[in-house]
Design brief:
The complex is a heterodimer. Chain A is of the alpha/beta class. Chain A is built from 8 helices and 9 strands. Chain A is globular, with a radius of gyration of 18 Å. Chain B is about 80% helix and about 0% strand. The chains are: A alpha/beta, B mainly alpha. The interface of A and B includes residues 9, 95, 115, 142 and 150 of A. Bound molecules: adenosine-5'-triphosphate and magnesium ion.
């Protein structure tokens, strides 16, 4: 059930050639110019990801995490510095499911976007719903789904875009603690089976440490890289493992110091 | 639950109407006004019954004009709103003219159109469409403007062509606006139909009203007013029902979470 990767067409903002790396962000700064003064969102941020690597980005609210993802997806241009990335699909911070469309049609949106006919798009998306435990909710509207189900559909929708890079913007921030923990385990398993280069933005340090190969800590606005910590622990990981707990503490310390 | 609550509160306006009718009846019965000038509610009700076939055949004429007129207006308005949404030039060229069209005095426009287009249904449709068109264009455009910009960003990372964004996102988002506009327009459409018929017609409730007044059939004139008003209410209710069927997502309680 592999999805073929497709070259991006949103090319002008995008420099697809990142060398051996899937993502290469070099010394990027981004300032929003507003009438009431400039808001610097990111300052000289560098970050890279090898193909198949999961990089978590943690940082306080408003430090430019969403901005960073939009730069990687080619939705914004940096003021200075350089962003190169393989084609990336976004999973937005709010799920943004279409309220009029069924779960199946929502999941198939990216397929429809690239010109697949409705019936074929549904056919292709259906086995994925099954795999994600949502087969029974194929026809349900988003309003009838639980928060966890909505996030799964939203993730699936971005996954089916078939891009080598996934930019996940706080995918589970809106969920309650129990559902969030479940979804974190779920995402770890999905990415294990369906490897992608992933940039996972979160302000949940435990989530970052559980899921990522590397954790990048940003300072408060304007976001700068405060630290980069590799996570060597083997998978599957458990929250209670000493290695995970220790690393979580270290990230929290860095965040506090930043 | 809500239905029951509505039904329980519903007797209040009914009580007001009954009280007003009672006072009116009493006023006429006690000789407050000649029945030629002010027929009592009882006499109006009597006319509604006695003249039912006359009223009905004229009602059908007006109802057809109004329904067709609103349909024509809605089709034209949606087409224009789409054109304005896609092409800034169209919007800049036509929006001011559209507002200007609202200053046309309908009571004067109607006879001019009858002179030009004859006594058939055509001038009626034009008058109704002219008075209905504007609000549907405005509410449809507002619908287009309410599309979530983050959703457009998401579609960009899916490489969706403009056409796909329109059919998958923009049009469904704007659809409730079309219904809002049509509902707003029901009242003016009925008024427009009456003016158009009075400017030149040999059937329809507006025509029957003028004729009844001229023949001193005051009760029958009142009966046409009652029918027209009931028709407007009915049409509004029908549009509300159609709206709920066509755009159920627009009426669900706001989603919580995410
Ligand atoms: N389009 C914009 N125009 C003006 N300012 C913006 C814009 N987008 C973001 N900002 C500002 O830039 C800063 C960083 O925004 P961003 O959304 O990237 O932060 P974030 O880390 O994702 O925050 P959160 O954790 O709350 O999602 C914020 O202060 C925000 O107000
Ligand atoms: Mg954000």
């Amino acid at each position: 059930m592999a999805i073929e990767a497709r070259p991006s067409q949103s090319g002008e903002l995008h420099e697809p050639d990142a060398g051996d790396l899937a993502i290469r962000v070099e010394c990027v700064s981004r300032t929003f110019r507003q009438r009431r003064g400039d808001i610097p969102a990111l300052a000289e941020v560098s970050l890279s990801a090898a193909p198949g690597e999961i990089v978590a980005v943690v940082g306080p609210s408003g430090c430019g995490k969403t901005t960073l993802l939009e730069l990687i997806c080619g939705l914004q241009r940096p003021d200075s510095g350089r962003v190169r990335s393989a084609p990336a699909a976004l999973m937005p911070q709010r799920d943004l499911l279409l309220p009029w469309a069924s779960a199946l049609d929502n999941a198939a949106l990216a397929l429809r976007a690239r010109g697949v006919a409705r019936d074929r798009a549904r056919e292709q998306a259906r086995p994925w719903l099954q795999r994600f435990g949502l087969a029974a909710f194929e026809r349900a509207r988003p309003a009838e789904l639980s928060g966890g189900m909505r996030q799964r559909i939203s993730f699936l929708r971005s996954l089916l875009a078939g891009k080598p890079v996934l930019a996940l913007d706080e995918p589970f921030a809106s969920l309650d603690a129990i559902t969030r923990a479940e979804m974190q385990g779920w995402l770890a398993r999905v990415l294990d089976a369906e490897p992608r280069t992933v940039v996972l933005v979160t302000h949940d340090v435990e989530e970052a440490v559980l899921l990522a190969d590397r954790v990048v800590v940003l300072t408060a606005r304007p976001g700068r890289v405060a630290a980069e910590l590799p996570v060597a622990a083997s998978r599957p990981r458990r929250r209670s493992e000493p290695e995970i707990v220790a690393l979580r503490e270290r990230v929290l310390e860095t965040l506090g110091a930043a | 639950m809500r239905l029951a609550a509505t039904a329980r509160a519903g007797w209040r306006p009914v009580a007001v109407v009954v009280a007003l009718l009672g006072a009116w009846e009493l006023y006429v019965d006690l000789g407050g006004a000649s029945t030629l000038i002010l027929p009592a509610p009882r006499t109006v009700a009597q006319s509604l019954y006695d003249d039912r076939s006359l009223l009905w055949s004229n009602f059908l004429v007006t109802a057809q004009e109004v329904v067709l007129g609103i349909l024509v207006a809605a089709a034209a308005a949606v087409a224009l709103a789409c054109a304005m949404h896609f092409f800034a030039v169209v919007r800049q060229s036509l929006y001011p003219l559209l507002i200007a069209s609202q200053t046309l005095p309908i009571p004067m426009l109607a006879p001019v159109l009858v002179l030009w287009l004859g006594f058939g249904i055509l001038p009626k449709l034009v008058v109704i469409a002219v008075v209905s068109f504007f609000s549907i264009v405005v509410t449809t455009l507002a619908g287009f403007a309410s599309v979530d910009p983050d959703l457009l960003k998401l579609m960009r990372t899916f490489d969706a062509p403009r056409r796909r964004v329109f059919w998958s996102i923009e049009l469904p988002t704007a659809l409730p606006g079309v219904f809002t506009g049509a509902k707003i327009t029901v009242i003016v459409a009925v008024i427009g139909a009456v003016f158009a018929e009075q400017a030149g017609a040999n059937s329809g409730l507006g025509f029957l009203f003028s004729e009844s007044i001229a023949q001193l059939q005051t009760a029958r004139a009142y009966a046409t007013v009652v029918l027209l008003s009931a028709f407007a209410i009915l049409l509004f209710a029908a549009l509300t029902a159609a709206e709920r069927l066509a755009t159920p997502w627009a009426h669900q309680p706001k989603e919580t979470g995410s």
